[in-house]
């Protein structure tokens, strides 16, 4: 069995000012770097040794992984990047304020169709339809890349005999993946930066142990506080 520590990247500039990041990218803020340092220290305190690391190819997840591996004493392990676990692409709304898309364009589109809102498939297809740049993905493409990306990582890890792997991805991508694994449950919303969704993988199937846990960050925060008090 493979234990999968699925992490949302650290807080970025666009996260801070409420812009839809998508496939666009901004670096971690000082607060974001501090939060992921806490996460790495929490992993270290629990004695978690990762056999392999994965992230999307976005700068914010790569930067996050560096802080995790360095502060958890896991530097030097195999590390791969995979564009399939990128965030949703918002097309021409990438970089726009969240409210413009999620509180403006999409509600109006659903209202025109006589609905108050939509499920993930309807939201993805609505973004695809209003995207004037032609970059956004229809639901089937988005769904399949997320599923195959995470499954392929876990399957490779299982074949190698890995026990623990860490994956850094994005908030909406992670919540979409959780919903796809458990369609009977409500989709998690507003996963915190640096939160950990813990999964077990065996024989082609995932089992969810925790969603959006802040346990490791809180532990790291306590360690940093204790160290500061000593000095």
Keywords:
231 residues; globular; 8 helices; Rossmann fold; six-stranded mixed sheet; alpha/beta
Question: In brief, what are we looking at here?
Answer:
With 231 residues, the chain is α/β, with parallel strands linked by helices. It is built from eight helices and six strands, in the order βααβαβαααβαββα. The active site is at 9 (tele-phosphohistidine intermediate), 87 (proton donor/acceptor).
Tally of alpha and pi helices: 8
Q: Strand percentage, roughly?
A: 15-25%
The helix content is 40-55%
CATH class designation: Alpha Beta
Element order: H for helix, E for strand:
EHHEHEHHHEHEEH
Structural class: alpha/beta
Give the biggest sheet.
Answer: 6 strands, mixed
Architecture, according to CATH? 3-Layer(aba) Sandwich
Distance between the termini: 42 Å
CATH topology: Rossmann fold
Q: Using the CA coordinates, give the radius of gyration.
A: 18 Å
Number of strands: 6
Model regions low in confidence, pLDDT < 50 over at least 5 residues: none
Number of domains: 1
Mean pLDDT: 96
Strand order of the largest sheet: 3-2-4-1-5-6
Shape: globular
Tell me the CATH superfamily: Phosphoglycerate mutase-like
How are the SSEs placed, and which strands pair?
Layout: E1 2-8, H1 13-17, H2 30-45, E2 52-55, H3 59-71, E3 79-81, H4 98-112, H5 120-130, H6 139-160, E4 164-169, H7 171-181, E5 196-202, E6 205-213, H8 215-230
Parallel strand pairs: 1-4, 2-3, 2-4
Antiparallel strand pairs: 1-5, 5-6
Helix pairs in contact: 2-3, 2-8, 4-5, 6-7
Active site: 9, 87
InterPro entries: His_Pase_superF_clade-1, His_PPase_superfam, PGM_Phosphatase
Pfam family, one: His_Phos_1
